[in-house]
TrEMBL record:
Binding site for a divalent metal cation 1: 5, 7, 92, 205
Protein family membership: Belongs to the metallo-dependent hydrolases superfamily. TatD-type hydrolase family.
KW Hydrolase (keyword) present: yes
GO cellular component: cytosol
Keyword field: Hydrolase, Metal-binding
Binding site for a divalent metal cation 2: 128, 155
Native source organism of the sequence: Candidatus Coprenecus stercoravium
Keyword hit for Metal-binding: yes
Name of the protein: TatD family hydrolase
Superkingdom as given in the UniProt entry: Bacteria
A Pfam family of this chain: TatD_DNase
GO molecular function annotations of the record: DNA nuclease activity; hydrolase activity, acting on ester bonds; metal ion binding
C-alpha cells in the first residue's frame, strides 16, 4: 500500500519516528508521500524524509491555513523550491474557511497561482478543501476554461457522489480516502460504493483523522490497513485487491518509480 498523505514529520512523531515507520512497513505500506505545508515545517519534512531514502516522496506547497500576512513571501519560498525540482506533487494547497475568513481572498489567489505552477511543472496537485467547495469549483472552472491541464488528488474526500462526479470533469483527479471512511455516521461509505476503485488512493493524514478502531489515539501510517479493510468490505473484494489497484493508481498519479 501507499500512504499518499501523511505528516510523519510532525512533532507528534519526533520521539518514535523510526518505530512508527517500521510498524507501517510491517503493515504493508511500501511508500509514503509527505505533503508540504509552509516554510516553517519544510526543514523538518526534508530531514525526516532523508531518514528513509527510497521510501518517502515529498511535495511542496502552501497550505491554505498557512496563508496569512506573509503569504507572498511564503509563495516565493514554494516557487524557489519548485525550481529545485525533485517533487512528486504541488501540495498541500487549496481553500479553507473553517477557522477564519480573514485571508480568504489571499487563499484564492495563492491556490490559483500554485495550480498554474503545477501545470507548468507537469506535476499533480494535492488539494485540501474545507467549507469552501463552491469557491474551489469556481476556480477550477476558470482554469479549465483557460485550458490549464489539471491532475491530482482531492485529499480527505468526504463529499457526495455528485461532488465526485464534478471533480472528475476537471481531468485526472483521484479521491483520497482515509480514516473518515470507517466512521459510523460519516456517510462516506455510501458514496464510495459508487466510486470506481481505480479512482481511489489511500491516505491517513496522520497524526490526524484516526480510523476506527483506533480513534482517540494518534493516527499513524500503519493504521491504513483499517481503511483498506473497510474499503474492501464496501466493495465486496479483498484487501489485496484494494492494495493492488490503489497502489497502481498512486504510482501513476505521482509518477513513482
Amino acid at each position: 500500500m501507499i500512504d499518499t498523505h501523511t505528516h510523519l514529520y510532525d512533532e507528534a512523531f519526533a520521539a518514535d519516528f523510526q518505530e512508527t515507520l517500521d510498524r507501517a512497513v510491517s503493515a504493508g505500506v511500501e511508500h509514503f508521500i509527505f505533503p508540504g505545508i509552509d516554510s516553517a515545517s519544510h526543514d523538518a519534512m526534508m530531514r525526516t524524509a532523508a531518514l528513509a531514502p527510497g521510501l518517502i516522496s515529498t511535495a511542496t506547497g502552501l497550505h491554505p491555513t498557512s496563508v496569512g500576512a506573509g503569504w507572498k513571501k511564503e509563495l516565493d519560498f514554494v516557487e524557489a523550491r519548485l525550481a529545485e525540482g525533485g517533487w512528486c506533487a504541488v501540495g498541500e494547497i487549496g481553500l479553507d474557511r473553517h477557522w477564519s475568513d480573514e485571508f480568504f481572498e489571499q487563499q484564492k489567489e495563492a491556490f490559483r497561482i500554485q495550480m498554474l505552477w503545477a501545470a507548468q511543472a507537469s506535476l499533480p496537485v494535492i488539494i485540501h478543501v474545507r467549507d469552501a467547495h463552491d469557491t474551489l469549483f469556481e476556480t477550477l472552472d476558470s482554469l479549465r476554461d483557460e485550458g490549464v491541464p489539471m491532475k491530482g488528488v482531492m485529499h480527505a474526500f468526504s463529499g457526495s457522489i455528485e461532488t465526485y462526479r464534478r471533480i472528475k470533469k476537471y481531468g485526472g483527479f483521484r479521491i483520497g480516502i482515509g480514516g473518515v471512511l470507517t466512521y459510523k455516521n460519516a456517510g462516506l461509505a455510501e458514496t464510495v460504493k459508487h466510486i470506481p476503485l481505480e479512482d481511489i488512493v489511500l491516505e491517513t493524514d496522520s497524526p490526524w483523522l484516526t480510523p476506527v478502531p483506533c480513534r482517540g489515539k494518534r493516527n499513524e501510517s500503519s493504521y491504513i490497513r483499517h481503511t483498506a479493510a473497510r474499503l474492501a468490505d464496501i466493495k465486496g473484494t479483498t484487501i489485496e485487491e484494494v492494495d493492488r489497484v490503489t497502489t497502481a493508481g498512486a504510482k501513476e498519479l505521482f509518477n513513482l518509480k
